[in-house]
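B., you asked whether I could sanity-check this one before it goes into the benchmark set. Here's the sequence:
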Amino acid sequence: MDLEFKTYILKKFLYIARYRALAVLLLLLLALAPAMAQNVVYQGQTSTLAVVQQPGETYDWELYNDGTVNFATVPGNCPATSATFVGGSIGASVNVQWLKPGFYFFKVNARNITGCSNNIKIGIMEVKEALPTAVLEVNPGDICEGAWAELEVTFTGTESWSFKLEMKDSAGNSTVKQYSGIQGTNNPYKIPINPLATTTYTVIEVVDKYGTQKNPSNSVKLTVHPLPQKTPIYLKKP
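And here's what the prediction gave me:
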């Protein structure tokens, strides 16, 4: 559990402890604390929330972006622009897409065959800034041997960036070159290239202020046409 996460949880505990009506929530959160470090996703990702299905029970889920309320009586208060259920909020497992960074709470109500509920479970999710990505373009897409082209790398995320570029030629030979210290004023980042043979370029890792993405980019291919063989030149006599 990282320091930011611990600090956030401690503040919530101290706030909740001021209100007798939320004492039960404090106990629930304390019981869940050892597992909370597992609930970390990145902005834009979709994760699954689940409980073990019990015979005769149905489950409905709610999301909160305000952890100061009494979860036992207050319905979910998270706007759909921050986090939203994908495919519905009913079932032993549901999917949630996390749209904005921050800390969220989720609640599941367990209902018996009569529809009555006497059991709830509370959890917390930390949503971190989205991992960076890179989009590659090459211009032109084919050249003659000895000519130059330009590889353009466009980043998402927060500066500064560093990345590893893999270059694989038509024979399967691969090399990796690393670039670092790229600021926002250089996004997109342009690299002049003049390979001797057809080459495929892929960013295999990109790092920004908030994290490392291990599968960040598309691949682009630069086709290199060989020069023609030298042949004698004959002049036609007048």
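One thing to flag: Residues 16-37 have pLDDT under 50 and may be disordered. Otherwise nothing jumped out at me.
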